[in-house]
Amino acid sequence: MLKDYFEHKKIKVEDRCEDYYDFLYDYHKEDHIRLERDKDHITNLYHQEGVYIPVAWEWVVPLSKLLKEKYGEEVQVLEVMSGRGLLAQALKEKGINIITTDNLNFKEIRNKNMFVDLDDILDAEEAVRKYNHVDIVIMSYPPNDCDVSERVLRAVRDNNLYVLFIGDEEPGYTASREFYKQMKIIEDEGINKINDLYKGFQPYNDIIYLIE
Question: Are residues 7 and 90 in the same domain?
Fold first, then answer.
């Protein structure tokens, strides 16, 4: 798994992500001072492994609580473009019922071990239209060089759903420019509090938006 990768690259032991729990990026532990100093280096390591958002309990726990407060203990979540499923696995551990989907077209996740088994392999828009019984959709770091983010937004609106978008605050590395023009942000105090805890990888200016 990742252990072999890090050993091959001769990366120091403290940089290794040998299992799922080590992959939960903890940017406040005192023993992670080196991560603060070498953020770009660490960001590149994670990206090479197909992980694009820093999944940390510090913001995942309040997010799971917020989802249950809004939609009930049996909240149903659909994640599109789940990738290797790190966020999905973290949410599952906090009691969130989540359907994971991805078309596996992204080269960084091919031939990689998954953190959670995908429930369905299909296009993001198709996933929204197929699983339109859910309470909310999560979309993290969609590519900026195609229209998939726009298509997901259309499907979300066609089915009277909401999407929790994790990506750039403004057009840049994630989603298309047209997506940013079309999205309607819902101001939510709970999401604002989670954004106070969420810190994206350097040098990206990530944010969590609730969108309709």
Answer: no
